[in-house]
Amino acid sequence: MCHDKNKNPDGNRASISYFGIPMSDNNAFFDDKKKEVAIRWLNRCLPNLKCECCGEGKWILSDNIVTMPNYTGGIVLGGNILPHIPLICSNCGNTKFFNAITMGVIKKGEDTNG
After folding, report:
1. What is the pLDDT along the chain (114 residues), one digit of tens a residue?
2. What residue ranges do the domains of the chain occupy?
3. How is residue 71 annotated by DSSP?
4. N or C end of the chain, less CB within 10 A?
5. How do 66-69 and 81-89 pair as beta strands?
6. How big is the chain by its Cα radius of gyration, in Å?
7. Which of 9, 18, 20 has the alpha carbon at shortest distance from 37?
8. What three-state secondary structure class fits 92?
9. How far is the C-alpha of 99 from the C-alpha of 85, rounded, in Å?
10. How far apart are the first and last CA of the chain?
11. Which of 48, 63, 69, 60 is nearest to 96 (CA)?
């Protein structure tokens, strides 16, 4: 959970928003309510986020939650995953991945299969 250590001193909302760029047709789980949770977390925790590649501060929230498998020394199908939400620099495409559980978008142990 974010502790507001980077709180924006003048209270202005950061330029992190959802522009609805569809990256697949299967986004029913990451609905608008969950996207708003992600946007609020990003704006609260990283209000002045700048891209380390190009220096811009305009970001696009991905339309999908992506997963990373846990590394156990080999490939394991059906194993544990780490759900992440991509945040994409609108200028250069640099992509950051934020843990969806830490953000409060997914509850630990939540069934995401519907």
Report:
1. 444 444 444 444 445 555 554 445 555 578 889 999 999 999 999 999 999 999 999 999 998 899 887 777 877 777 778 899 999 999 999 999 999 999 999 988 765 555
2. 16-21+30-99
3. P
4. C
5. antiparallel
6. 15
7. 18
8. coil
9. 6
10. 25
11. 60
- Exposed/middle/buried for 30, CB within 10 Å: 0-12, 13-18, 19+? buried
**Is 65 in contact with 99 (CB distance < 8 Å)?**
no
Is the full-model pTM beyond 0.70?
A: yes
Distance of CA 83 to the CA centre of its chain: 9
4 near 45, Cβ under 8 Å? yes
One-letter amino acid of 5: K
Location of structure tokens 């156990």 = 72
Q: Which amino acid is at 64?
A: N
Q: Which two tokens stand for residue 54?
A: 């190009």
Question: Is residue 48 within 8 Å of residue 14, measured between CB atoms?
Answer: yes
